[in-house]
Design goal:
By secondary structure, the chain is an alpha+beta fold. A hairpin with a 4-residue loop joins strand 1 and strand 2. Helix 2 packs across helix 3. The protein is globular. The N terminus is likely disordered.
Length: 152
């Protein structure tokens, strides 16, 4: 009887852990909502102050989402999951398949103003290359955009 309770507890615990891990991933709707909130933050605080908050406040990396602020020249001004990119020009960064995904995001935001870009990149939770999708949105009054990436 004790063994049965122990095994049942282990199975339930494993199920809860798997469920919690699955919930760590943002949906595309959640990623786009964070982008909308980040664009509003830039409008409210200005680029410099918003960039600091986007990089440093944990709410901008919820469920493995990467929120980033880029100017249209390719300069990364904020990044919620990789602060080492801030201050670097990332325009020509390519994914393992050779896709210049930041350039594609920049062109999309500068043209249509908003949309989705698929690419491969290091996942901030699993620390391995995974299929990602980013929602990008032009920031009104600024020559740049906010992007929000999650697993595809």
């Amino acid at each position: 009887m004790k063994l049965w309770k122990l095994l049942s507890g282990l199975v339930i615990g494993a199920s809860l852990l798997a469920s919690a891990q699955a919930q760590e991933r943002a949906t595309q709707a959640e990623a786009s909502a964070l982008v909308d909130a980040a664009v509003a933050l830039v409008a409210k605080l200005g680029v410099e102050k918003a960039a600091a908050e986007l990089t440093n406040d944990a709410k901008w990396r919820a469920k493995g989402t990467s929120i980033f602020l880029q100017d249209n020249k390719g300069n990364c001004l904020a990044h919620s999951t990789n602060a080492k990119l801030v201050g670097k020009n990332t325009l020509e960064i390519k994914d393992p398949s050779g896709k210049a995904f930041i350039k594609e995001m920049t062109d999309l935001a500068a043209g249509k103003g908003t949309g989705w870009v698929s690419y491969e990149f290091a996942d901030p939770i699993e620390k391995k290359i995974t299929a990602r999708v980013a929602y990008v949105k032009k920031v009104p009054g600024f020559d740049g955009f906010v992007g929000g990436a999650t697993v595809k």
